[in-house]
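**User:**
If convenient, please work through this fold.
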Amino acid sequence: MIRRILMLSPAVFTSLSLIAIAPAPAADVKLPPTMAMTAYDTGTSGFNITVAVGKMMKDKYGSDVRVLPAGNDVARLAPLRSKRAVASAMGVGTYFAQEGVFEFGARDWGPQPLQALLSSVDCNGISLGVAADTGVKGIKDLKGKRIGFVVGSPALNQNALAVLAFGGLTRDDVKIVEFAGYGAMWKGLLNNDTDAAIGATISGPAKELETSPRGLVWPPLPKNDKAGWERMNKIGSYYFPLLATCGAGISPQKPVELGSYPYPIYVVYASQAADLVHSITKAMIDGYDDYKDSTPGASGLGAARQTKNWVVPVHAGAVKALKEAGQWTAEQEAHNNALYKRQEVLASAWTEYNKGNPPSDDKAFLDGWMKARAAALAKAKMPNGFE
């Protein structure tokens, strides 16, 4: 399935243009001549930001960054696991992969020791974009409507369910329409195959829908609706309220109260060499002024704007770069060390579960793993996060 989804992407590799003379790299930043990173589909904000960061690395350090677009979390992580890519611009699927839940609770995956470099929180929200011709004004109006889901992308699907919960709705209250990738889902909105899709307000597909005959609205998630936010956070604990001031149909003059979380989140595997991770992160920090205004959302990658004490640890190489930038504290160090320990507990639980002759049936395997996972976390006195 992973191979099929990758083939649906508009291009296997998008290579940044070469320049005739490679610049002299900074002494403490040593990047390989060529690197590959994965991202969401072509045209999405995560893809565009990664291209902008890659251009900076080419111009400033002479490293040619190739961006591999993929329609779901499994497809984005497969090249990292096989060492065909060094990093990925992920969404909250980073968290699901670390925890070994949803698609990552399958026999071929399990908890993934992903660790962050930098992430972005900017002026954009992440919510359900709705075709304006549906007449929907609030989330509760989505009852009975068609909601886009992406096969193999627990992050996108869980986000959609979290936003629906804000309006008191569950998946049983709507009609789920499945698509092969993020881009295909938003094309489905354009083609009237669905009525709503999860996404960032600054993504290219959202802008395309806004200018189409169907139009686009972002039903608000008011911060003062405490009950709505309580319902939403039960499904998506990683979400927080944000006044979106940029994106399709949104501006500082026409802001919308929505929700958000860090996106993109640049991640690597824990096993990735600390020196390389340090160089990539330091290049992103030192070259920030060269790409921060190049595409919406890129400015959120500034070292001083990093989300502190989130749910996934920061890689040791990135910690070093953040310390050098004066953007790391003792409190973060303690929190980060606890998250390293959580990944160890999850990895050990996965190993023990698979030693115990687990069921061959996929659903029974996942059910058994979730129970083993919960028991291991409870024994370690760590929160489950997926009750």
Q: What stands out?
A: The chain has two domains: 2-120+263-338, 126-260. The first strand starts at residue 14 and ends at 15. The first helix runs from residue 2 to 8. The CA atoms of residues 58 and 64 lie 5 Å apart.
